[in-house]
Amino acid sequence: LTSPEASAYLSRLTSLSLQELEEEPTELSSSSAQLTNALTTLCYTSYPTFLSLHATTSTLSSSLDSLSSSLSSLLSALPNLESSARTFAQDSRALLASRRKAALVLEHHDKLHDVLSLPLLLETSVRNHNYSDALLLAQHASTLASRFPSNPLVQSVKADCDARVHSMLAQLLRVLHEQAKLPALFRAVGFLRKMNVLSAQELALAFLSGRNAYLDGTLRTMDVEKKGLDSEGSIEREREIYARYLKRYVDAWREGVHDVVTQYTTIFLDRPHGTEPAPPELRVLLTTFTTLRVRQLLDLLREMLPLVADPSLLSSLLTQLTYCATSFARVGLDFRAALGPLFVSAVRKGVTREFEDATNAWAKTLEAEDTSKSRPRSGPSARKKPSQLFLPPGTTSSPPIPTAAQLAALASAAPNVPPPILASYPPLAIYTNALLSALNGLRLLAPAALLDDLRVALDSALARGTDSLLAYIRSVPEEWSNGPATTASQEEAKREDEVVRAAGTVYAKVFVPFLRRALVEGVYGVKVQDE
Fewer CB atoms inside 10 A, N or C side of the chain? Predict the structure, then answer.
């Protein structure tokens, strides 16, 4: 009766009328019967449902019990699950960070690829000599490195780019050491200036060093002109080889040095009108380079010219070098004044040596042994008889001796025409030809300052020839006095003595004065009495 439904029903009963109260039991019985019939019908029609509901209820009860036990197990396992979850979160934090980085890399893949491709692109540009793009790429790498100073990837890319830039620097400097024309050199120097790794003085010094090395290599190739010196050959052939070598060397030197001076002036010294002139240090470097090259050339000439010796060859070389010095005078490098002493010394040595060689051949002729069949093979060796030595074979007449008129005419005769009497004495004629050959060569290049020196050298050579002749003359009587004194031998000795006297007279009164006049008057055009 205390339930809400009972209280509500009692309240309803109190609100009913008497008639309604009297009818209430009937209505309740009727409702009960209807409910009983409906319940019976429902049980009959829906008994499978009730059976299923009963089974389900039983299963639900057991399931609820199992759920209750599972919930208890779950509640006991939740702390372990929570700790495991926390451990997993901590362990996966690095993986998540790595995945976030990977996602970020993937998001900026194109930009990273461009940055990482900088060294390869720079290397390709350098290899293809595309230095403009290479400098732009290097500048871009430097900008990135300055924006991200703590990023190791960017700094690594910057280091790789710097290595390629050093390779480009070496390649550009190598251009200065190779064969190149002005445009290529101007371009290389321009890129070196843009790289800003060398000061103006250092760049100019590198340019001169490179061109100097290339010029040295070019001049070393001229050594092929010396081919044939190792094999045995005549002195004339050796002189021609040395002369050809010097001619090729001077041509290569002139072209090489002139190119360097022109290139250096155009690249470093020429400035547009109205701009600041070039620093004096740059001009000093060019002056030092040209002075060094001229000094090396003069040292080579000082060494090689005495080996040429032949005045005809020296004359050709002097003409070539004079033209070379004149061409350099236009750029302020006139070294003609330094050539004179070198050629004077070379002419002096060459002519003096020819005088000595001719005199040595004369002395050797006088010392030659008699190999005629009239001498016994087992006898002692001896010099040739005067008639065998001085006169042509088969001569039976007396040897010619110059008369006073002939000697007087000799003083006014042409100084370059040998006296005919010398042809009567073949050894003396050979000696004359040797000395005249030296004087004929001297006529092509006869320094006026050498007149006194060459006259002394000729007098010295003639004095040596006189000594050799006197030594031979003194030995002749001794050899003839050792034989048996017969009439035939005395006549033969008298004839030999006559030949010796005639040869001595021709030597002293014709040969010596003629050669002195040939040098003084024939070569230099100075009268003997006026000298």
Answer: N
